[in-house]
Design brief:
Blueprint lengths: L37 H9 L13 E3 L5 H5 L6 E3 L4 E4 L3 H4 L4 H4 L4 E4 L2 E3 L5 H8 L1 H8 L16 H5 L8 H12 L10 E4 L3 E4 L2 H34 L1
Parallel strand pairs: 1-5
Antiparallel strand pairs: 2-3, 3-4, 6-7
Length: 238
């Protein structure tokens, strides 16, 4: 039977709010639980922060090598490095030929960055010059945020991931992080995550069961990969 209110209108129970909302509470005094944290934050901001950023955002520019097509049409002349922090840009010659003197505007534009890395920069040199210090700061207990930004085909994926032969900043960062905790890892395999913030310790029998499940899953993944590899080969040679 549908529940009713006193005025005869039907209502459905709500799982979000109570049926009879409680009267709105007045202002709550929190003076007894307020704490002045300014001294603690001042220690963090003006203390022994040894990072190269010193609290400021660092913006680094990496110039990728020009493609053969870009070299053919003279695009390599549009970027020139003044020094380690400044570059000068000008339109390519094939673009200038289409512009009149009135529409061309200023031909040269200068931009300043925290650090500029030229096309000859290696993956290792770029990591040493941009990521190594922030990673060390993170290991020392400071928050750091690093991201890559650029247009399509600017080289973000290569800089971030790299190749198997010459890895990028992400694999080098992970390598540095894991090397920093060598000798501090728990090598036993008897702990299992439980929900979000806890873990359980497994018995010997449970460890054997978990190992069997893991091995079975890995075999299944390998079989699926081999199956799809065979199907892919058959589709190619048809």
């Amino acid at each position: 039977m549908e529940p009713t209110l006193d005025n005869g209108k039907f209502f459905r129970p709500s799982y979000i709010a109570s049926i009879e909302p409680s009267p709105r509470a007045g202002p709550v005094s929190v003076e007894d639980i307020k704490t002045d944290l300014s001294s603690e934050f001042s220690l963090v901001s003006s203390g022994s922060d040894t990072s190269q950023s010193n609290g400021h955002i660092q913006v680094c520019l990496r110039i990728r090598p020009f493609t053969s097509l870009e070299r053919e049409n003279g695009s390599q002349d549009c970027v020139s490095l003044e020094d380690s922090t400044n570059i000068v840009l000008k339109p390519p010659q094939h673009y200038l030929s289409r512009l009149s003197e009135k529409t061309s505007g200023p031909m040269l534009q200068k931009f300043t960055f925290s650090q500029v890395f030229g096309p000859e920069t290696t993956q290792e040199e770029f990591f040493e010059g941009t990521m190594k210090q922030p990673v060390q700061d993170f290991l020392d207990g400071y928050n750091r945020l690093v991201f890559t930004y650029g247009v399509t085909n600017a080289g973000k994926t290569y800089t971030f991931q790299g190749t198997e032969e010459d890895v990028g900043i992400l694999p080098r960062t992970m390598d540095m992080l894991f090397k920093s905790i060598q000798g501090k890892l728990y090598t036993a395999m008897d702990l299992k995550p439980y929900r979000c913030r806890d873990y359980i310790k497994l018995t010997e029998n449970q460890v054997r069961e978990e190992t069997a499940i893991k091995n079975s899953l890995l075999r299944l993944i390998k079989e699926v990969e081999e199956h799809f590899s065979i199907l892919f080969s058959m589709c190619i040679f048809r």
